[in-house]
Amino acid sequence: MPLPADVDTTSPKYLRDKYAIVGVGETTYTRGSGITTRALGSWAVRNAIADAGLKPSDIDGMLSYQSGDSTFGPFIAGDLGIRLNFYMDVFGGGSSTEALCGMAIGLIEAGMCKTVVIFRAMNGFSQVRIGGTGARAAAPVLGDMLHNRAYGWQSAGQMFSLTFMRHMHDYGTTPAQVAAVKAIHSEHAGNNPKAYYKDRVTVEDVLNSRIICKPLHLLDCCVETDNGTAIVITSADRAKDCRHTPALIRGVVGRCNKPRMDMHYQHGPISTVAGHYGKDILWPNAGVGPEDVDITGSYDAFTFTTMLQLEDYGFCKKGEGGHYVSDGTMRLGGRRPNNTSGGHLCEGYTHGVNMVVENVRQLRHDVDDSCPIGPDGKRQHTYDYRPGGCRQVKNVEVSANLGWAMPGTGSAMVMRRGA
Amino acid sequence: MAISATYLGMPLEINDLDVENLEYFKHCAAHDFHLQRCDACGLLRYPPTTGCPFCAHAKSTWTRVEGKGAVHSYSEVHHAIQQSFRQHTPYLILLVDLDTQKGKPTEHQALRVVGNLATPDGKLAPPDMVKRVGIGSRMRMVFADVAPGLSIPHWTIDETAQQPANPWRYPE
């Protein structure tokens, strides 16, 4: 169907709802996978393609990213007999998933591919730990690292914690408020049979856990796991032939950064993160605002990264994030649940993909919890969010995923439930 | 000339191509803090870069800068990653707003310079000193000598300055 004459096709806005995530898949979240990242990636991609109701030969594009360990797209493609028209493996961390979704849309829009898989595979516990220990700690310090690692300023927790410390100073935010993020995500993980940590923890448990680097306690930090995760993107037209209700992509902001890269915190208030800039791209492109969003998926590498992103993308006013993340809004049954899978803090650490996977399933109204499966093969959700129960959010229509790599870089994606 | 040295058990390297860092640490080795001043817009920048982040001009001149300022934020590390830092925990990572160029070119910009809290002779601070420093503390720069042409700038309490009555500390 031709676009109406008044559509500005030079704007990314006209890509709204033209592309969809049609398949999602993952491996088990473990500590000690016992297999290579190539095998983890192959299983995740295989599962996502099957979930879409497609065959490997339907895939002609593959995008991936790595910081630490992973494998290359062409190896996975080779293992599954896929012939790629385009692949790209980029360096990257948490701001990569949504950015690569934008890249997949561009590839399909340009006619270079028809259906693109994005994956991330990592033995993040048993091989290369993101926390910076092992071989990384022993490597020579050179270049830009002379201005951070030489000061014992190396792990993500050490690098990012200054933003939260300053937020506490400027706004009176308390450790207990951000500890609520862990407590809430642990409630969600308790209703997720796949989560690595399923036990509920309280705010007091977080505050009583040992200090890693002030203001971070051990339980403010995410769980390092081994796993692979994958998503399949194609056009909304092709999505009609796929197995599930598509998750239509409303808009993407891909790897937006602060005016100066922020690891030395030269620009702006240091507790202002890239989402502050990203929101001016994300919401106009998506044609919705934060008030229209039913569920969020935050990059919860640490409890406070969730707070900073939700603030800066406009889910609450700057400085009120501590209240927002602790007042029950983000809880299952609350007004806008966040990380209903348990996220990085509890489900497992997969550098951003698992919260997209979760929101796709939420938009399908078919989250894999412990609710009974009906005669149509779908879960009969009870919306009873007590421990071990349901985690499907009722009537979800719009979701937002907020990716973060460093305080100064972020990417985000808004999706809506398709027909 | 390239430098290879060991500092707190860590191998540090600056190769011949990294002319910005060679120059930066050469001044530090003389215990004289220098930053690049852009030849076009006149603004100082930190850390060393190959172009001006404010106007994109490529040329700059190394300029002496006073190593004084106030703590903007900090982290207190109890779980060290580097093996050799473990005997020094808890240690402070400080982000210090230099008095020079504070609030320029815009309100929330500054030269925010990283360093550990150190004794006046450049050694990582003992625990009783760590407890005295918070946001707002007045600091002065000191140096840890590593090798010819390489000293690491750090921060120590400026005992000659008027200190805030209660520097902001993480609530215990």
Task: Tell me about this structure.
The complex is a heterodimer of chains A (419) and B (172). Chain A is of the alpha/beta class and 419 residues long. Helices cover 30% and strands 19% of the residues of chain A. Chain A has 13 helices and 12 strands. In chain A, strand 6 and strand 7 (216-217) form a beta hairpin. Chain B contains 2 helices and 10 strands. Chain B has helices at 19-29, 127-130, and strands spanning 3-7, 10-14, 34-38, 44-45, 60-64, 68-77, 91-98, 112-116, 138-147, 150-157. Chain B has a 5-stranded antiparallel β-sheet with strand order 8-7-6-9-10, covered by helices on one side. A 3-stranded antiparallel β-sheet of chain B has the order 4-3-5, with helices on one face. In chain B, a hairpin with a 5-residue loop joins strand 3 and strand 4. Chain B starts with a strand and ends in a 15-residue tail after the last strand. Classes of the chains: A alpha/beta (419), B mainly beta (172). Chains A and B meet through strand 5, helix 5 and strand 6 of A and strand 2, strand 6, strand 7 and strand 8 of B. Strand 6 of chain A pairs antiparallel with strand 6 (68-77) of chain B.
Short overview:
The complex is a heterodimer of chains A (419) and B (172). Chain A is an alpha/beta fold and 419 residues long. Chain A has helices at 37-52, 73-79, 96-109, 135-138, 156-171, 175-190, 203-208, 236-239, 275-286, 303-312, 321-326, 343-346, 353-363, and strands at residues 19-26, 61-66, 86-91, 115-123, 141-142, 211-214, 216-217, 226-235, 247-257, 295-298, 398-406, 409-417.
Terminal Cα span of chain B: 48 Å
The major beta sheet of chain B can be summarized as: 5 strands, antiparallel
Largest beta-sheet details of chain A:
9 strands, mixed
Number of strands of chain B: 10
Poorly predicted ranges of chain A (pLDDT <50, ≥5 residues)? none
Low-pLDDT runs of 5+ residues of chain B are none
Structural class of chain A: alpha/beta
Largest interface, C-beta closer than 8 angstroms, per-chain residues: A-B, 44 and 46 residues
Strand order of the largest sheet of chain A: 3-2-4-8-1-9-12-11-10
Radius of gyration of chain A: 20 Å
What is the typical, i.e. mean, pLDDT of chain A? 94
How many helices of chain A? The count is 13
Q: Would you count the extended β strands of chain A for me?
A: 12
Structural class of chain B: mainly beta
Overall, the morphology of chain A is: globular
Shape of chain B: globular
Count of runs of 4 or more consecutive helical residues of chain B: 2
Say what oligomer this is.
heterodimer
Q: Average pLDDT of chain B, to the nearest integer? A: 96
Give the H and E element order of chain A: EHEHEHEHEHHHEEEHEHEHHHHEE
